[in-house]
Design goal:
Keywords: Membrane, Methyltransferase, Transferase, Transmembrane, Transmembrane helix. The protein has about 200 residues and is mainly α. It has six helices and two strands, in the order αβααβααα.
């Protein structure tokens, strides 16, 4: 059987999304057992999460399942699929590392947990928000793996809404919780892309 480049891209995207869920699930279960001491969830926070879910899972999932919107397709190329695979699976590696580094401090939302510690090792030594970096890499991978302009745009828009709606609030919460330690950490790290931004 000779698979087309588009089919290979779709298979790799599905495998990547499965990997995302397999990585996230045990941390989600564990997080429910740790008491929340500060909760800054809001409607805007939820909008960001919904946007990311739509852009990085629902819209591409519909495309993979149905081919809709076919009119926005562009030709799939194996070189693009290779770039997409490296980007998406780099995102999964980083996603796993961030979860491991955060451990019991991890939360899907804007929360401080009981005995929360400032994490500044592993990928957090280079950027303050490496989990968002992994979502950016997912969006990039999605654009190369699924050769459709709507799907490519959906991934980047979903990521951007999540990031820009939450990052300032997240940093304010960390400053309120850790004060000068977090300010020093901000001074020596970038937000999203090492050495750049």
């Amino acid at each position: 059987m000779n698979l087309s480049a588009a089919a290979v891209g779709q298979i790799l995207w599905v495998l990547g999304v499965i990997a995302w869920y397999v990585i996230r699930y045990p941390f989600e279960r564990r997080a429910k057992r740790v008491r929340i001491v500060t909760n800054r969830r809001s409607f805007v926070d939820m909008v960001g999460l919904v946007a990311a879910t739509l852009g990085l899972a629902v819209v591409p999932g519909i495309y993979v399942a149905t081919g809709f919107p076919e009119a926005a397709d562009y030709p799939a190329r194996m070189w693009a699929i290779a770039i997409g695979a490296v980007s998406f699976f780099s995102a999964m590696w980083l996603f796993r590392r961030t979860h491991k580094e955060l451990g019991k401090n991890w939360s899907i939302s804007l929360e401080i947990r009981d005995k929360h510690q400032l994490v500044s090792g592993g990928p957090y030594a280079l950027v303050r928000h490496p989990m968002y970096t992994s979502f950016l890499l997912m969006a990039l991978g999605q654009a190369f793996l699924l050769s459709n302009w709507v799907v490519a745009l959906a991934g980047f828009v979903g990521f951007a809404l999540l990031f820009f709606l939450r990052v300032d609030k997240e940093e304010r919460m960390m400053l309120d919780s850790f004060g000068g330690s977090y300010r020093d950490y901000m001074d020596r790290t970038k937000r999203l892309i090492p050495y750049i931004y």
